[in-house]
Amino acid sequence: MVDDGLFDPKKHACPVPDVLLGQHVFPLRPGSVVTKSGPILAAADSLRITVYGQGGHGSMPHRCIDPVVLASSIVLKLQTIVSREIPPEETAVVTVGSLKAGDAVNVISDEAVLQVNIRTMSEEWRKRVLDGVQRIVKAECEAARSPREPLFEKLNAFPLTSNDRETTEKVREAFTAHFGDEHANMDTAASGSEDFQNLATAVNKPSVFWGWSGSDPRVWEKHQKEGILNQLPVNHSPFFAPGIHPTISTGIDAMVVAALSFVGKNQGREFDF
């Protein structure tokens, strides 16, 4: 929306807000909301990487350069970025979500395509992880005698979502007054990602993003009773099915309470809906 001229006075001319508020369902206890100052969601970068070999018949691998073996080596070596290059106090995730090569069981393909997703919690380590991915892929291609340089294509990029501290404190006070014990502070940032931050960065305004529960009370209760809350279906899982209640009411309350903490005569007071 920003790239399409959301705030451009000559295009969509959307008024520039004083503050930006955003929210998203999280796998939390039903009816609860969470906030956090500073980084709350990771930056995310997705790449498509094509590596090249020399195809041929599966019975004569010595006459080929096998891109499947090359790609497999890359997948394993990429895991060393997090395990051997990232300090223990930093957080990063490198996931190869897709690896495709060839169509026949007895034919060695001439290329393999990997799709890589990267999550980081700071701009410094974002750059270093991305540089590490390129360095490893190029080195493995050279070691495998790849006939061509690998092709890197950026699929998407999401910024680090970092909440303005003063703005977050104001929302926290309002949430505590309204939700009581159902409002909690997050200790660490989540590894999910959002493009919400782009709205604030584009106009240099403060922002705050928070999570509210999308869990079905019956599903939550079952998992809690069985001691398997770590297996609760999360966002984008094919089994993630938010409960209509209290998800809708909690989300509406959260956004209205946050908005009214900045505008209207009820600022700073408990809200009764």
From TrEMBL:
Q: Which Pfam families match?
A: M20_dimer
Among PANTHER family, the record links this protein to:
METALLOPEPTIDASE, PUTATIVE (AFU_ORTHOLOGUE AFUA_6G09600)-RELATED, PEPTIDASE M20 FAMILY MEMBER
For this UniProt entry, which segments traverse the membrane? none
Q: Which organism is it from?
A: Paecilomyces lecythidis
Q: Where is the Peptidase M20 dimerisation domain?
A: 46-142
Q: What name has this protein been given in UniProt?
A: Peptidase M20 dimerisation domain-containing protein
Which SUPFAM superfamilies does the record cross-reference, listed alphabetically?
Answer: Bacterial exopeptidase dimerisation domain, Zn-dependent exopeptidases
Query: What's the domain of life for this entry?
Result: Eukaryota
